[in-house]
Design goal:
By secondary structure, the protein is an alpha+beta fold. The chain has a five-stranded mixed sheet with strand order 4-5-3-8-9, sandwiched between helices. It has a two-stranded antiparallel sheet with strand order 1-2. A hairpin with a 5-residue loop joins strand 6 and strand 7. The chain starts with a helix and ends in a 14-residue tail after the last strand.
Length: 374
């Protein structure tokens, strides 16, 4: 009997590890996972609880004991109310399917559904996760005791099993908490590392590394589907004067505000990045020459008429210069760096011809129909 409960704990820990791996592919920053994640998680934890029934201890021909209720507890605390209900329903159904329709099976199924419904309250209660696990675990074991009492003819037989089950279930709940918290922290640290590797720390835009990866990926996509791809390279005019006059904290504030302004004036499908210093870029997906020039001019005008607020409350006005290049009009089809080089050359032309303007080089490849003309 003791070995059976020990196996239950080992199975639960293995399932938690597997769930932790799966969780890496979902957002862990949200207070509660999405409905889709809860549906998938509830189904998985329902299967986990069902597996535990295969490692159960038989009190009699129809009554078994195991730690399946911990699957419902874990789903409620770490996934949400919907996951808790789904887990309870799946375990209840498969309890009857696997072991037949008996009074003990029906009672056990009813308890799992009831515990799953109780998990809705626990999921959204303003308690710590540890408190939720301990309280819901105790509630589940109380329900289980009632069912065992109803289906076990001898109290002596029940008391030989239940105290051990209660003790291991309590210890198992604590194991689940510490392991799940460790997995959560590990996933959160991984997320932060991945985000820092691809995000500019100041503006929360994509950084140069992420921009280069996106540019290469979108160029391949444009080649495959014969689409246009436009690039705006943006530089703040005389930004050094802002730093020299107002200080670097003021310059940082201006960069943050400009990054937000660029996001607001780009399309929702476009990719905005800060490539270093005062240089930004916008990758315009499926966008031809005329449309990209119009977007660039719109961005330039928006910046020119904006007031940027400094930390001390003062305001400054800025202008930007923009270089525009379009694939495949301006670049070599076999050189992934050529699109950026052409946009950068156009930016220097804008700088050298007076700043606060949008420039592009003369097109040299006209091989794909411009979507703007369709």
């Amino acid at each position: 009997m003791l070995s059976t409960f020990f196996v239950n704990l080992c199975v639960i820990i293995s399932f938690l590890y597997l769930s932790g791996i799966i969780a890496k592919y979902y957002s862990i920053r949200l207070p509660f996972p999405s409905l889709c994640v809860q549906l998938v998680g509830g189904f998985l934890f329902g299967l986990y609880g069902t597996v535990l029934m295969n490692y159960s201890f038989h009190i009699n021909d129809t009554t078994i004991v195991d730690l399946r209720h911990l699957a419902v507890v874990t789903a409620a605390v770490y996934l949400g109310g919907l996951a808790s209900v789904i887990t309870g329903i799946i375990i209840a159904i498969l309890r009857i399917v696997m072991f037949g329709v008996t009074s003990a099976a029906i009672d056990a199924a009813f308890i799992m559904i009831l515990l799953g419904l109780a998990g809705v309250y626990f999921a959204y209660a303003s308690w710590s996760r540890l408190t939720k696990i301990i309280t819901m675990n105790l509630l589940g074991m109380t329900m289980i005791f009632i069912v065992l009492l109803m289906n076990t003819p001898s109290m002596n037989t029940l008391m030989k099993v239940y105290p051990i089950q209660m003790t291991i279930a309590f210890a198992g709940g604590l194991f689940i908490y510490f392991i799940a918290e460790f997995i959560n922290r590990s996933n959160e640290m991984l997320f932060l590392l991945e985000r820092r590797a691809s995000t500019d720390h100041l503006t929360d835009l994509s950084n140069r590394r992420q921009f280069e990866q996106s540019l290469q990926s979108e160029l391949q996509h444009a080649r495959q589907y014969h689409q246009k791809l436009s690039l705006l390279v943006i530089d703040i005019d005389r930004f050094k004067k802002v730093n020299d006059t107002f200080g670097h904290s003021a310059g940082d504030s201006v960069l943050k505000q400009l990054g937000q302004l660029l996001v607001e004036h780009a399309r929702s499908t476009d990719l905005v990045s800060r490539n270093g210093g005062e240089e930004f870029a916008i990758l315009l997906l499926d966008c031809g020459y005329h449309q990209s020039m119009a977007i660039a001019e719109s961005v330039r005008k928006a910046v020119a008429r904006s007031l940027f607020i400094l930390p001390d409350g003062q305001t400054v006005k800025l202008t930007i210069s923009i270089g525009v290049a379009v694939y495949p009009d301006h670049c070599d089809d076999h050189d992934d760096n050529d699109l950026f080089d052409q946009a950068d050359r156009a930016l220097y032309e804008a700088k050298n011809t007076g700043r606060n303007r949008v420039c592009s080089l003369p097109p040299r490849n006209i091989t794909v129909v411009d979507n703007d003309s369709l």
